[in-house]
Every structure is written in C-alpha cells, then in structure tokens.
Design goal:
This is DUF3828 domain-containing protein. It comes from Rheinheimera maricola. Keywords: Signal. This protein is α+β, with helices and mostly antiparallel strands and about 160 residues long. It has one domain (about 30-160): Nuclear Transport Factor 2, Chain: A, CATH 3.10.450. Helix content is about 50%, strand content about 25%. The protein has seven helices and four strands. The protein has helices at about 1-25, 30-40, 45-55, 55-65, 70-75, 75-80, 150-160; strands at about 85-95, 100-105, 110-120, 125-135. The protein has a four-stranded antiparallel β-sheet. A hairpin with a 2-residue loop joins strand 1 (about 85-95) and strand 2. Helix 2 (about 30-40) runs antiparallel to helix 3 and helix 2 crosses helix 6 (about 75-80). The chain is globular and about 40 Å long. It starts with a helix and ends with a helix. Residues about 5-25 have low confidence and may be disordered.
C-alpha cells in the first residue's frame, strides 16, 4: 500500500513538473518566432522572411533598398543568425503591440553576447522589427531581463554621450 502511494505521489509530482515546464514554454510566443527567424536567415529564405517573419516596416525597407540578400540588406540580421554556441538564457517582455526578446549566448569562440530582438504585433501575429547585438565582456554581463533594441536615434545619442 505504501509503495502504491509513493508511486502515485511520484507520478503526480512528475506530471505537475512536466505541466509547469510545458506551460512556461507555451506562454513565450516570441522564442519560437526567433528560432524561425534564425533558421530562415541562415538559409537565406527571403520569401519566408519577408512574408512571414519580418515586420511590414522592415520588409518595406528591404524592398526599397533593392538588395537581393539579407546579408546585403542588413548585415547585423545575417550576422546574428550566423552565431552559434550555447544559449545561456532568454527573457521576453510584451507591452501592448510591441515586445522584446533577449537571448544570452556563449558563442563557439567563447564570446559572451546578448541578442536583443524587437517585435511588433501585425495582423494578429508577432513580427521581427529590429535586432541588436551586444558584445559583452563576460557572462557576468548577461542581461537579466528582456531588453529592446535601441532605436537609431537613441543609439546615436548614446554614442555621442560616450565620447
């Protein structure tokens, strides 16, 4: 009888643990999209990128640029997709129709980086709107919450203040 109770308790605990892990993954709508973005970028799948993954703003800029590949249009987008290594952690935040995902990564070259991706909600789905790559000194500098990419204006302002 005691063995049956222990087995039942173990399976109940395991089921609860599994359900909690699944719930955490299932509530993050951005990370699977980020993975699709990386995959489509690595394979230069322009149609998937422009039609399904990138925001209308980014797609319009790409069309206007008349660049044939992602690398020519946005070297940073392509570079981010080329980074490989061990993911340390990731965080996301959603505020209305904008969202951010930060992924901490140790690259194969042992560099610590934070990839900050901005998303916008369009036609009922999240679309990649911006990407920023932070080269860090070490793992101790990893972000501990979702960080949105800086706008071009904020980036220039921050650069001016650091000189």
């Amino acid at each position: 009888m005691r063995l049956a109770i222990k087995i039942a308790a173990f399976f109940s605990f395991y089921a609860l643990l599994t359900a909690c892990a699944w719930t955490v993954q299932a509530t993050d709508p951005l990370y699977p999209l980020y993975q699709k973005f990386l995959q489509a970028s690595r394979s230069d799948d322009i149609e998937i990128l422009q039609d399904n993954l990138l925001s209308s703003r980014v797609s319009a800029l790409w069309h206007e640029s008349k660049e044939a590949s992602l690398d020519e249009f946005s070297p940073i987008f392509k570079h981010v997709s080329s980074l490989t290594g061990k993911e340390h952690s990731h965080f996301y935040a959603i505020t209305g129709e904008t969202a951010c995902l930060s992924v901490n990564l140790i690259t194969d070259n042992a560099a610590a980086v934070a990839i900050n991706t901005g998303f916008v909600l369009e036609k009922g789905g999240w679309k990649v709107d911006d990407v920023m790559l932070d080269l860090l000194q070490s793992e101790q500098d990893f972000v501990i919450k979702a960080t949105c990419p800086l706008s071009a204006e904020d980036f220039l302002l921050q650069a001016e203040q650091s000189f």
